[in-house]
Amino acid sequence: MNGLTRFLQGILKHIDKGLQGVARRIPNSVTPNFLTLLRIIFLAPIIIAIQGENYITATVLFLLAYILDILDGPLARVKNQVSEFGKVFDPTADKIVFVTVLIILGWNALPHVLIYIIIGLELFLVLLVIFFAPLARRMGIAIELGANVYGKIKMLFQTLGTIALFITFVVEASTTTVTVIFSIASLFSALSILGHLLAVKRIKNPTL
């Protein structure tokens, strides 16, 4: 497992370097939190496109939201704008967009058990970031809030699964492949949670 983790981290590190090069070209007036807010704003036209059965338009908008997602982290590091608020706001925005689209688009196309598992895992991650981490800090335990390697891979598979789901509506194909992709995403989501829990550490001066 450690060897696999290091291998995946090496790949993601090279990708991150490339994204940082792109982020350096973004104007200073554009902040990481602005990109996160923009992703949430994208949700409204995505929903409208889905309800209007304009699945190609919805797919393009979802892809744009994903591009903003993969850019805001490198942008925060390049511009030295990493913040605790961003560490909470960014993953929460991801989950709001993804889960909303999943329910609207996938409820009548995917096994409900899989949808419940996905939502449960995402909800646990939100609770971990918003409630458990601050409470643990007060108890002298630090939980790393940033996305780990498994969380990033999970996000990739969730995005691929969502795009594949859009495609099944366009060409009226089976959702079997989509189910497999989301199942893999759920596995990495569980590994991401486990990674967060295993990364806890004692801090010397907890906030009382």
Question: Any overview of this molecule?
Answer:
It contains seven helices and two strands; from the N terminus they run H-H-H-H-H-E-H-H-E. The chain has helices at residues 2-23, 32-51, 55-78, 84-106, 112-138, 149-171, 176-198; strands at residues 141-142, 201-202. Helix 5 (112-138) runs parallel beside helix 7. The protein is globular, with a radius of gyration of 18 Å. The model has no long low-confidence stretch (mean pLDDT 84).
List keywords for this structure.
mainly alpha; two-stranded antiparallel sheet; Four Helix Bundle (Hemerythrin (Met), subunit A); 208 residues; 2% strand; 7 helices
Short description:
This protein has 208 residues and is mostly helical.
Succession of helices and strands: HHHHHEHHE
CATH class: Mainly Alpha
Strand content: under 5%
Global outline: globular
Q: What structural class do the secondary elements suggest?
A: mainly alpha
**What share of the residues lie within helices?**
over 70%
Largest sheet: 2 strands, antiparallel
Regions with little confidence, pLDDT below 50 for 5+ residues: none
Continuous helix count: 7
Mean pLDDT across the residues is 84
Rg over C-alpha atoms, rounded to the nearest angstrom: 18 Å
Strand order of the largest sheet: 1-2
Instruction: Determine the CATH topology.
Output: Four Helix Bundle (Hemerythrin (Met), subunit A)
**CATH structural architecture:** Up-down Bundle
Span between N and C termini? 36 Å
User: How many beta strands in the DSSP annotation?
Assistant: 2
* Domains, number: 1
